[in-house]
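*** Fold description ***
***
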Amino acid sequence: MKVKNTIFIVLLVLFCSLVKAQQTTMTLGQVLKRAQSNSLDVFLQKNMFQARKWEYKSFLADRLPNLTLGMTPFDYNRSFVSRYNSVTNLDEFREQQSLYSYARMSLSQNVSLTGGTIYVDSDFGRLENYGDTDRKSYTTTPVRIGLIQPLFAYNEQKWMSKLAPLKFAKAKKDYIANSQYINLKAIELFFNQVLAHLDERIASTNKENAGLLYDIGKKRYEIAAIKQSELLNLELNVLQAEIDLVKSEKQLQQARFDLNLFLDLERENTNDLLLPENISDLNINAAYALDLALKNNPLILEEEQNEMQADMQVDKTKKESRFQATLTASYGLNQQAESLNSAYEKPLDQQKVKFSVEIPILDWGKRKGKYKMALSDREVIRLQAKQREMDFVQEVSRKVIDFNLQKRLVENAKHAAEVAKKSHDVNLHLFKEGKITVLQLDDALKKRTTAERNYLNHLKDYWMYYFKIQQYTLYDFKAQTELEELFDTQLKEM
């Protein structure tokens, strides 16, 4: 008997745990926290940022010395080649067989200031001929120092040293701003479920009230206290209430599904959501918020990046329209011999200097046209950037004003919802006593429904405004913290 009781208790505990796992209560803060850790959008943003981070690391790697090893282990050739026979004074074909091997080690460094490249290398070559006269020979360059320097040319390395850090800084701010977009999406889905639950609760209450009123109406109709038309309206209300309840239940299921999917929860979970009604007395200074937005928002860096890229294109087309010159110089030691040891003995000087120039003579204005086009594009980009910045300033200012006024709207809407509920309860009691008509009761119900929905919408707007401002400024006004400071801590773990 004791064993059966123990088994029963264990099963009861497991059942209660299962129910608890499926039915939970979540606050808006918990929804936002889970959205930032489990939503698909978060993983997408992380991968996008990782791509930008590795792009920046690749840029940094290009600025460091680059060590490479090039090898040709064997290059075998057997063919007939044309040779001059001095005895017969004729050209003739002869079979030739050779095996060539080569290796080169090079250390190079890009110079961002000049756009050139300096290098130090060492190479080794071995050639073996087969046939009538077998012979081996070696050539070595123990060390060689060289320079490849374009003159008066477009310096992409110099521009990238300015552009790459800016692009990475923008990528960080984009990631933080997109995290706030995830918050906004979570708030939208949170209140969608809250509103759907309100509609379902109202529809359920309406169905109960409609049934109750219809029963009362039938009794009054029997004693001729109401007309048949009024009784039919009560019956119609019952049918419509049932239809509305089914619709509201369907909308609630869809809203729950959307939120659970976004938060990566089980579809069957029925989370009860607690309204974030305890809003703070926070009042945001518009001028301070605007300064933060102009400093932190990725839109500003994007415009700076666009202008820099336009300047880079102007510089490129301008310098490519002129003559191109390149200086190549190297100094090293080399030797050749028929044995490997001898190839490294008493190396001789190796000096190379090359200066090449390419001068456009006639291109029918093609280079000049590209330059003028780049100038026009740069001016368009600057004007567009100025317009977008003006629009952005207005948008930030409007959102701050909306947020600072929203607290009063929420409080008034909440009080209106409470008054409308009391009014509906009083009218329902009066209707049961036969002191008001059905139309008057319906009007009270509509006002209650409208007031409750208005309250929820104003509460939703309060939180949407706050996180929208946080998205613009990348600043937590409640914690008085730069969001980028928190991100730098997370960046070490990514």
